From TrEMBL:
Belongs to the acetyltransferase family. RimJ subfamily. This is Ribosomal-protein-alanine N-acetyltransferase. Keywords: Acyltransferase, Transferase. Transmembrane segments: none annotated. It holds the Pfam family Acetyltransf_3. Residues 15-189 form the N-acetyltransferase domain. Its EC number is 2.3.1.267. GO terms for molecular function: protein-N-terminal-alanine acetyltransferase activity.
Length: 205
């Protein structure tokens, strides 16, 4: 835990991952609204009777508290766009459930604007953050859990070489029901050269 620091900004080409902020609310909400149907099948839900999801401010407050406790890295994925002064939000990526001690592991989740899907944004962002966690924080294992029906996310872990570790029945509450997931993982020994370097060298032109 000695190497943990926050806030952190990570960059690769036109992609910039930075901490989510309260003042991102308007832009974040607009992107999420445009993507509501695209994201709904994979959206986490509250299994408690009558339970709902936090609003934007509550979400950011919770993520900031987790970062302060060194258990999460809450990023928005932004991209530099010609003619636009500030990079625009094109998605979100959160490293959560960071466990230190003998485990040195974390779980990663993400979503990307449907209008920017297929442009290499998700795999680049995942590789960038995984390298940061392995090389700077000293974590040993990164895990990603994906619904078996979520083709775009499955392609991300396939492109990056995450190992399929098997099926987890009724693993997370998603879109109103307990949903099965497939678990993928990577350890630091598997990417000594860095995951981002490997992805950039092998990605399609």
């Amino acid at each position: 835990m000695g190497g943990f620091s926050w806030p952190v900004t990570l960059e690769s080409g036109d992609l910039v991952l930075r901490p989510i902020r309260y003042r991102d609310r308007k832009e974040w909400t607009e992107v999420r609204s445009r993507n509501s149907e695209w994201l709904a099948p994979w959206e986490a839900s509250n299994p408690l009777p009558g339970g709902g999801l936090p609003d934007y401010r509550q979400m950011v407050r919770s993520l900031k508290a987790q970062a302060a406790q060194a258990t999460a890295l809450p990023f928005v994925i932004t991209a530099r766009t010609p003619g636009v002064r500030e990079p625009v939000i094109v998605g979100q990526l959160t490293v959560s459930s960071i466990v230190w001690g003998s485990a040195m592991m974390a779980t990663l989740g993400y979503w990307v604007d449907k209008d920017r899907a297929g442009q290499g944004i998700a795999p680049t962002a995942v590789a960038l953050v995984t390298d940061y966690c392995f090389q700077r924080l000293g974590l040993h294992r990164m895990e990603i859990n994906i619904r078996p029906e979520n083709g775009p996310s499955l392609r991300v872990v396939e492109k990056l070489g995450f190992r399929d570790e098997g099926y987890r029945p009724r693993f997370l509450h998603i879109n109103g029901e307990w949903a099965d997931h497939r678990s993928f993982a990577l350890t630091s020994e598997e990417v000594p050269e860095g995951l981002l370097e490997r992805w950039l060298q092998n990605r399609p032109a």
